[in-house]
Q: What sequence folds into this?
């Protein structure tokens, strides 16, 4: 059967989500666990969204082929029994044999968390970006609206390894300040170019600190250019929240 796995991980000690030789990755540890349980016939695990080293996920989706009579719950528990504490399979579900977690996705949702308080929070340092000055979150929220729509995001893209298009459809881009004083940036799009969100966040921080204007950011969107937003916000503030499909894995009844 082909299985869809919803995977959560703390990205701090991973060299990203995608398999790399001689590096610890989320895909690599999932494949090791699957091989231990199901044998070598499982083959390569596919991932819905590529995350950089240090980036986290609570709703990453992977696909796995396995010959098994185990229930969904038994598969989930067996995988977690062979995974380290910084990654887990939250859910396993059967899907059609041609399901591809990347190509079948209709949207991805990410969240970035900023702490602009006077001191860092050591217990949250792996999951937020501490900016050493107060930011104007109202100006940032206004500026973020420039990202919404179908645009060429070359200004916010790292160099592409495949030379593909940088056109993406951003559905929502919202900034809010939480009750505990954090600034949270939530963004949803059909897909993202490499390092797009971290570069967006860096531009929003520049606006919030007063060093850049809303018009400058709007010009980066309107006039795509490689020398546009060249600064990256650090990875630890970013989390993949959810990958959206026509079918809702969370609501599909399990076999167990």
A:
């Amino acid at each position: 059967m082909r299985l869809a796995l919803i995977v959560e991980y703390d990205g701090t000690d991973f060299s990203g989500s995608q398999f790399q030789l001689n590096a610890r990755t989320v895909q690599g540890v999932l494949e090791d666990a699957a091989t231990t349980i199901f044998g070598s016939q499982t083959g390569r695990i596919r991932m819905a969204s590529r995350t950089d080293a240090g980036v986290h996920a609570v709703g990453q989706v992977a696909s796995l082929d396995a010959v098994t009579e185990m229930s969904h719950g038994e598969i989930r528990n067996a995988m977690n029994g062979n995974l380290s504490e910084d990654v887990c399979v939250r859910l396993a579900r059967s899907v059609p044999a041609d399901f591809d977690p990347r190509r079948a996705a209709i949207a991805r949702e990410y969240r970035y968390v900023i702490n602009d308080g006077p001191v860092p929070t050591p217990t949250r340092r792996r999951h937020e970006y501490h900016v050493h000055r107060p930011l104007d979150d109202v100006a940032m929220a206004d500026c973020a609206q420039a990202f919404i729509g179908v645009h060429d995001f070359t200004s916010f893209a790292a160099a592409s390894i495949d030379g593909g298009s940088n056109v993406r459809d951003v559905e929502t881009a919202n900034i809010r300040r939480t009750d505990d004083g954090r600034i949270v940036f939530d963004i949803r799009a059909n897909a993202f170019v490499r390092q797009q969100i971290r570069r967006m966040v860096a531009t929003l921080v520049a606006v919030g600190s007063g060093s850049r204007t809303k018009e400058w950011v709007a010009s980066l969107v309107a006039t795509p250019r490689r020398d546009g937003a060249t600064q990256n916000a650090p990875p630890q503030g970013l989390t993949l929240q959810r990958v959206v499909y026509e079918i809702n894995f969370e609501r599909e009844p399990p076999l167990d």
User: Anything to note?
Assistant: The mean pLDDT is 93. The longest strand covers residues 167-177. Helices lie at 26-38, 72-81, 137-144, 196-208, 214-222.
